[in-house]
Amino acid sequence: DNGKNPTTLEALKKSGLKGDHAYSFSSDHIFAGHANTSIQLAYLCYELSRPGNSRKQTRLKHELFETFGKPASLSSIIDDLEIVDKLPYLNALIEENSRVHSSLPGAEPRVVPRPYLLEMENGKKVVVPVGTVISCLPYAMHRVPTIFPEPDQFIPERWLPYDHEFQQEYKERIKLQQKYMMPFGKGIRMCLGRNLALMEMKMAIVNLYWHFYSRIDPNWCEVVTSKDPGSTPAPINLGSRNVGTNTTDEEKMTMYDSTTEDMFPFAIPYPPEQDDGFWGIPTSTIDWCEENYVVSKYVAEALNTVTNSVFILLASFATYHAYKNKLEPRFIFSALGFLLVGIGSWLFHMTLKYHFQLLDELPMIYATCIPFWSVFSEFKTKEQSMRIAWGTFMGANLLTVIYLYFRDPTIHQVSYGTLNVLIVIRSIRLRKKYVHDEVAAKQLHTTSILGIGLFLLGYLLWNLDIHFCTEVRIARRNWGMPYGFVLEGHGWWHILTGSGVYCSLVYEEYLRCFLTGTEKFFQFQWAYGFLPVVYCIDKPGLQRHRAVKKLAEEDSKYLEKMKKDL
Question: What is the mean pLDDT of each run of 10 residues along the chain (566 residues)?
């Protein structure tokens, strides 16, 4: 070759590889031998340079000083690979970096060369036909939360023995973690240069941090310094439309992914979540899955706030309707309590302040106490009814004191759920025993099923929002605004439970008509075809009926008094 070293392509050509095959081999070697290793080194240096990881950098330096002593001069180097290869914390850093920042995080497709039999968890067997493209995503496998708790956090200590962990337990845990790791691929096609890459990275890192400290230059970007240890990293705006818009170190250190799915047409990218906004740092004991201050700096959880409009509108309608149609005061107060819940929840989600959280949660208990007292005091004497009312009120006060002391939202949630279950059971029993009109019984049954169904569906979506928050947040950001609003599970909880509570209130109103013998003065209707309402169709007759009943009660009291006097 005229005394010149041949290029990679020339060497491949001499070996009989030409055209696409030669370029494929060449690109594989270049990327595998350079790009992947440089990506890993860049991210590990970045992680060690972050303010929140300063202790990790210090721990690495201490490990190096304890093993090799301090460098005599800038020209001193560490070259004993065998010792370097056995440094526990260095290995933990390398493992965790390759987990969090895999060089190839996306799909790694493979074509099935022959029929492949898979046995599913349920025992069924499935044949994957020849030619099927299958793929594994290292990013997803490295973030299985049951294997890697807090999967988005950089925690090298997960690769070291935990305190009080037996050696066998540690080995089994690491073996399971390695099963889900594939930074260099898996199987017979995994990276041939894996050990060379690890050697390069380890030698580069130990010699760099043996001599120097590193930090992120604040002139380059806005450095994220305050981040709760267990919080999710700030979401990154991906795609070509967001190039140049990312300002923090977290955002700038995101790999530009040209294969990232674009958002829906006319979608607006979600901005990064903010730790605080107009109302300051949140003080509430709970913070739902909706990201804070992404829609407006004046509203912490925009969708969770706005969806309380359903509570407020339905409660306002129920209050007005109960007053207009001469329903008993208990239903007006129930609706007003319902309204207070909506207002309190609006303020809570808008501010995420603890005092407004209480204005959301405590009215839920006290407002529910009214229908609880109502159904359990039916056919009781006035004295018995008063005892039930006082008992219910004192129970709510005791619950409030306990909740304020422990500040555990589970106490409130279980209590609220228990009250509602008891109300539903008692109401259904009263309907079956005292409502003999088939049409009315069917109307009440339909309303109860609708109310319970809406409530349970809202409860389901709320729990999905809690338990799959990470996946939901990713999907919302992929969709963009306003499409991502559809995935706000807690917002759906407001809409569905608000509608469910309204249906339950109407159910109690109509049931009460039969329990007081006033059903002939009222009529059940579906307003607008979907909204249950109870109309008074004979107000003069209802007033006469109540006047006669009141006189009868007064006469009964007078006769009782006369008997006692005699």
Answer: 60 67 63 72 90 88 94 93 94 93 75 84 85 84 91 91 91 93 80 84 94 87 60 52 64 52 71 82 90 92 96 97 96 97 97 95 96 95 94 96 93 94 96 95 96 96 89 82 93 97 97 96 93 96 91 75 70
- Residue 157 confidence (pLDDT): 94
Question: Which of 51, 70, 48, 50 lies closest to 201, judged by CA?
Answer: 48
How is the chain split among helix, strand and coil, in percent rounded to 5? 60, 5, 35
What residues form the annotated binding site for Ca(2+)?
287-288, 290, 292, 301
**pLDDT at residue 164 in the model:** 87
Task: Provide the 10 A C-beta neighbour count for residue 425.
Answer: 11
User: Measured between alpha carbons, how far is 313 from 316 in angstroms, rounded to an integer?
Assistant: 5
Cα 546 to Cα 88, 227, 326, 535: the distances in Å are 84, 64, 11, 17
Bridge partners, 524 (sequence order): 534
Which pLDDT score is estimated for 138?
Answer: 86
Known binding residues: 287-288, 290, 292, 301, 349, 490, 494
The verdict on whether omega for the bond into residue 540 sits within 30 degrees of 0, i.e. cis, is no
The two tokens of residue 417 are 């759920």
Which segments are annotated as binding site for Zn(2+)?
349, 490, 494
| Spatial CB neighbours of 41, under 8 Å, sequence gap ≥ 6 | 201, 204, 205
Phi, psi of 248 (to 5 degrees): -85, 165
Q: How far apart are CA 265 and CA 477, in angstroms?
A: 14
Neighbours of 411 (CB within 10 A): 16
